[in-house]
Amino acid sequence: MIRNYIKIAWRNLIKNKAISSINIIGLAIGIASCLLIVLFVLDELSYDRFNERKDEVFRVVFRANVNGELIKEAVVMPPVAQTLKQEFPEVVDATRFKRIPSPKVSYEKNNYRNGKFAYVDPNFFDVFTLPIIKGNKVAPLDKPNTIVLTKNEAIKYFGKEDPIGKILLVNDLQFEITAIIDNMPNNSHFHFDMLASMVGYSAAKNTSWMNSGFYTYLVLKKGLDYKSLESKFSAIIEKYMGPQMKEETGMTFAEFTKDNQLGLFLQPLTDIHLNSDFSSASTLEQGGDMKSVYIFCSIALFMLLIACVNFMNLSTASATKRAKEVGVRKVLGSKKSQLIGQFLTEAFFSTAAAMLLAVILIVIMLPFFNNLFDKELQMTYLLEPQIVFTLVSLLIVISLLAGVYPAFYIASFKPIAALKSKFLSTGNKKGVRSGLVVFQFVISAGLILATLIVDKQMTFIQNKDIGYNKKQLLVLRESYFLGPNQTSFKNQILTDPRVERVTSSGHVPAGVTNNSVTGIYVNQKFDRRVNIFYIDDEYIPTMGMKLIEGRNFSNNFGADSLNIIVNETTINKLGYGSNPIGKTMIIGVNDDLKTFKIIGVVKDFHFRSLHQKIEPLIMLNKSSSGLIVRAKGADMSGLITSISKLWNNYQVNEPFTYTLLDDSYNETYMAEQRMGTILKIFAILTIFIACLGLFGLVTFTTEQRFKEIGVRKVLGSTVSQIVLMISEYFIKLVMVSFAIAFPLGYYSMNIWLQDFAYRTKIEWPTFLIAGFITICIAFITISFRSIKAAQTNPIKSLRTE
Amino acid sequence: MIKITDLEKYYKTEELQTIALNKLSFDVKKGEFVAIMGPSGCGKSTLLNILGMLDDSDGGSFIFNGEEVIHYNERKRANIRKHNIGFVFQSFNLIDQLTVFENVELPLIYTGVKKAERKKKVHEVLEKMQIMHRRKHFPQQLSGGQQQRVAVARAVVNNPKLILADEPTGNLDSSNGNEVMDLLTELNKQGTTIIMVTHSEHDAKFSHRIIRMLDGQKVIENSLI
Fold first, then answer.
1. Is A722 in the same domain as A782?
2. In what residue span(s) does the ABC transporter domain sit (chain B) (predicted)?
3. Min CA distance, B223 vs chain A (Å)?
4. Are residues A166 and A253 located together in one domain of the fold?
């Protein structure tokens, strides 16, 4: 019997090539998209789980609200680790690391600058599971000036030589290599190539509770409720920070916490990747986002559901063609259960084919997908037992989901009616199918709307007046390598006719910023933090910023060293009123408090991403490392080549590096752009699958109304009247889907937009466009089939009687 | 009204070609009632389909109301059809989802008649066919005779000049069949040209003239008046 089922299943697949391939391709796309997303989600959820003590390790983080300003830092003060370990028996162990950005590493005569370096406590390897593969496996970092490298980093410097015992210079300090570890797993929330011992690092011994900078991790007793430990931290802070605060600011801890809050909190290790909201300066690596994991999970589920719905619809549609077969089988004595078995076998057959195709699709798509998500997912993931198990269960579930409905539907035909092809769908079944169409188009229209809104926000970001001119700016951040030659290098650049201006400042208001932060003091009391830029008199004109009051720094005025230029927000936030020029403020500079006079106000410009509101900013007249060049004319690449040649004349043993400010600006919104691309792709795929479903349903309808269409044509109906008659019902369903999709889409996209302090508005034309696109796509799909049906010669349909 | 000359129609399959109409010629005058008879497969239905402009011919000439229509495209033929021709089928071909009223109204919608006038016309014709009381029923709720009366009502509601009837009594018992034949005779008396395909000698006697066909050709013609 099974053999007969399989034979018939195969012949039917071959016979209805078009509908079978639509069916299988649709399902394959659904399964492939779903599996790809599952791979992505599994990877996101796997972060830091390779650690053997993953459930016992917690990161200590700092949160505060000072004068209404929220401070969220993933780093804490140097003594926190040791203090918590001493104070609480629940803390089994505590370890810290401190990262040093782009250090200069030298070996023999070569300099390198792209290694990732951190000082770590000697017990670092007791907390994190990073296997040592060579060298001292017991205590590699117990002595000062020792260092552990990853496998790849060691190869970078030493090739095939044995690195153990060799000396590496990092920022001109000597380190002895004591061990080599495996490369850090991709799914770790930090990646370092070099781990140096904290033993000889003086900053680590600092006992100040007023400065932070150390990533601190605790190992707690197994099964301990970390929230209860967390609640005991406030007493510790008061005990240790209180006296230091009184000494530095003159305020007692109780006075300070009357209007302000601050505290230390614990964050589970496995939460770090997906649930971190800390300041960008203290974020180790761009983490994931629980929100997008949820979004992608729902997209995966929806795609699979839509694909299954289609499978059902298309199978039912093609089933009407087999009514005669069912009739004959029944007349010849087939039982209903046998017919159900037969149709389920066919569903299983098609699902298996779709599954196979899906795996092939994944193999093809994975590199592209990795690129899109910035991941390194491997094909071998698919062979993991969970995935294989998922695939097999999917195969069974989809066969059942997709096969049961058509199987029971077709098998229930009455034999004589089936023989005469006389069967009418009852209103109830029509209701089910209409519901399925509405469901599919809710998702399609919702995704189209979301895509349009993401696009609109991206355009808004591109076109927003950000307060300076980001075009044609070349940033040479590392010009400080030239040391005293920097001035002559700058003057040589200025002689190039393609150069308009050059400023000796590296403060870039986009991308990775090196903004410094300091405090403003009012009546000797700390008031708030402000951002600080060190600039020369050329900075404001070079960047194309506008002074709205007062004057720029000038060489003519002698020492402007105690004068400052501030942005509008500073004036507004600090209440300097309508005439701020000449007023003074006290600012902490290098641990000293100095009084500065305001000589100019610069129009607000965005020096962070549009996610954040513009904050107070103070500009001091002091050159900083780095040069920014404003070019004129189109020959940017020629200019870069010339400057690079100039650079090489100085023989600094450092490669020439540059960035274009425009690129840095765009990089700031990479996550959003990626989100936009992903939404677009899944919107297209979803619509494609939904259209396959609609196509199937229209096929079904036209087959059912075959006679009616014939009669109407005989009575004089034109092709377009029939197309309209068939389309009307489906278009109405699509319209109904808008009623659900648009409020939902509006609600969720509004939440997404809340992440931007500066954002576009969702207005009615966007809904109109989304609706128009959806209806057009639906109508084209419907017409494709209905025109064919309407053009059929009516006598064909009437002859079947 | 109709003049066909050397009309030809073939049906082709991969291997063989069947001749359905073989150089058939005849004409039908305005106001005539013509019955076409012959065994199954002699080409009667094919002929009726071509006369109703539902199908193409493969040769010959077809003049309708003085116009050569043989080369007209689908749109032009549809236009002539909806204004001039009414159809009555053996199996009624009523649309199950529409009520009696809506079924009869359909041709008027397609010829663009205004709503108020449609209602008036449909009521008139339903009265005439004595099925007014059934106007809100669906076809499945009617007897065969009633269904065919609805079909006739639908065929005549547009006042066509020609009615093509394909075995109109084939699915009816004799009393219902006679009713339908009386209806057609009445319509013919009022000036409508009728061409009817039938197997029934009894029904054929209602006509003025019988054309007998065999293998796609006219074999004999008897005038009954």
1. yes
2. 2-225
3. 30
4. yes
Beta bridge partners of A502: A629
Q: Between chains, do B96 and A795 touch, taking CB under 8 Å as contact?
A: no
Residue B107 to residue A715, Cβ atoms within 8 A: yes
Chain B residues whose beta carbon lies within 8 Å of the beta carbon of residue A706: none
Secondary structure class of A542 (helix, strand, coil):
helix
Does residue A548 lie in a domain region? yes
All residues of chain A having their beta carbon less than 8 Å from the beta carbon of residue B110 are 712, 715-718, 721
Tokens of residue A152, six digits: 């790849």
Structural contact between residues A533 and A620, judged by C-beta atoms closer than 8 angstroms: yes
Indicate whether A256 and A328 sit together in one domain: no
Write out chain B's pLDDT in tens, 225 residues.
999 999 999 887 777 788 889 899 999 999 999 999 988 888 888 898 889 888 888 889 999 999 999 888 877 887 888 889 988 888 888 877 788 998 898 888 878 889 999 999 999 999 988 899 999 998 888 988 899 889 989 988 988 999 999 888 888 888 888 888 998 999 999 999 999 999 899 999 999 999 999 888 888 888 877
Which residue among A662, A683, A712 closes a domain?
A662
**Residue A468 forms part of a structural domain:** no
Does A482 lie in the same domain as A455? no
Domain of residue A547, residue span? 473-662
Contact call for residues A152 and A183 (beta carbons, < 8 A): yes
- Tell me how close the Cα of A731 comes to any Cα of chain B, in angstroms: 20
Residues 6+ apart with CB under 8 A from A241: A209, A210, A253
Indicate whether A679 and A629 sit together in one domain. no
- In a domain, residue A188? The reply is yes
For residue A616, being part of any structural domain is answered with: yes
Candidates B48, B49, B96, B150, partner chain A, best to mutate (most A CBs within 10 A) = B49
| A711, closest residue in chain B (CA to CA) | B93
Q: Do A109 and A35 form a contact (C-beta atoms < 8 A)?
A: no
* A–B CB contacts, 8 A cutoff, strictly below: 50
Residues of B with CB under 8 A from a CB of A: 49, 52, 54-55, 75, 78-79, 81-83, 87, 89-91, 93-97, 106-107, 110-111, 154
Strands (E), A250-320: 261-268
Give the Cα separation of A751 and B142 in Å (integer): 59
Same domain, yes or no: A490 and A621: yes
- Of B49, B79, B154, Cβ closest to residue A795: B49
Q: Which 8-state DSSP code applies to residue A473?
A: E
Cβ–Cβ below 8 Å for A795 and B110: no
Work out the minimum CA distance from A728 to partner chain B, whole angstroms: 16
Q: What angle do CA B190, B194, B199 make, to 5 degrees?
A: 135
Q: Which of A425, A707, A709, A714 to mutate to test the interface with B (most CBs of B within 10 A)?
A: A714
Q: How far apart are CA A478 and CA A486, in angstroms?
A: 10
Q: Which domains are assigned to chain B? A: 2-223 (3.40.50.300)
Q: Tell me the Cα Rg of chain A.
A: 34
Sequence letter at residue A421: S
Query: Which alpha helices (H) appear in A464-508, and where do they start and end?
Result: 486-494
Instruction: Name chain B contacts of A712, Cβ cutoff 8 Å.
Output: 95, 106, 110
A217 and A119 within one domain: yes
For A517, the enclosing helix (H) or strand (E) is strand A516-522
Co-location of A708 and A643 in the same domain: no
Taking the CA of residue B191 and the nearest CA in chain A, the distance in Å comes to: 21
Confidence (pTM) = 0.72
Q: What is the count of structural domains for chain A?
A: 4
Among the partner-chain residues A707, A718, A801, the one whose CB lies closest to the CB of B78 is A718
ipTM of the complex: 0.70
Chain B neighbors of A798, CB-CB under 8 A: 89, 93
The nearest CA of chain A is from the CA of B26 a distance in Å of 23
State which of A272, A299, A316 marks the end of a domain.
Answer: A272
